[in-house]
Write a structure and sequence with these properties.
By secondary structure, the protein is of the alpha+beta class. The chain has helices at about 20-25, 40-55, 55-65; strands spanning about 5-15, 30-35, 75-80, 80-85, 90-100, 110-115. It has one domain (about 5-115). Strand 3 and strand 4 (about 80-85) form a beta hairpin.
C-alpha cells in the first residue's frame, strides 16, 4: 500500500564527505514534519537535534536547567523557508513538495521535489526598509 505524495518539512543531514558519507545511511532524512509546523518550532527542533550530536549530556542538561546555551551554532535563515544549523555536517530544514517513499523495505528511501526559495537579503544601507 502506498502512502501517497505530500507536502512536508524535511530535515536532512548535509555536508558529509569521504568515508564518513559512505558509512552514513543512504537516506539523509532525519525527520519529516507536518507542513503546518511553524518555522520557529522547526528551528528549535533543528537546534535540539544538533545538540544531541554536538553536546555532552551535562551540557544538554545545563541548557535546560540553567538556561545556558552551550551550543555556539544557532540556526540561520538562508533562504525563505529554509533553516540551517551546524557546520560540517549540518542540518537543513525546508518545505518540499511531492514527498513520497520509493522502493521496498529495507531499501526504501524518501524522494521529493525541492521548492524554489527566495534569497533573504538585508536592505541596502540607507535604502528603503
Amino acid at each position: 500500500m502506498s502512502a501517497g505524495k505530500g507536502r512536508a518539512w524535511v530535515i536532512t543531514e548535509e555536508g558529509y564527505t569521504g568515508r564518513v558519507a559512505s558509512e552514513r545511511r543512504k537516506s539523509k532524512v532525519v525527520v519529516v514534519l507536518d507542513p503546518r509546523t511553524k518555522p520557529e518550532a522547526v528551528a528549535f527542533l533543528v537546534e535540539r537535534l544538533l545538540a544531541i550530536d554536538e553536546l555532552g549530556k551535562r551540557e544538554q542538561l545545563d541548557e535546560v536547567v540553567k538556561g545556558e546555551t552551550a551550543l555556539s551554532v544557532q540556526h540561520t535563515l538562508g533562504k525563505w523557508g529554509e533553516i540551517k544549523a551546524g557546520h560540517g555536517p549540518w542540518l537543513v530544514a525546508r518545505i518540499v513538495e511531492d514527498l513520497e517513499v520509493v522502493g521496498e523495505f529495507p531499501d526504501e528511501e524518501f524522494s521529493w521535489i525541492e521548492v524554489p526559495h527566495l534569497e533573504v537579503l538585508a536592505p541596502p544601507e540607507g535604502g528603503p526598509h
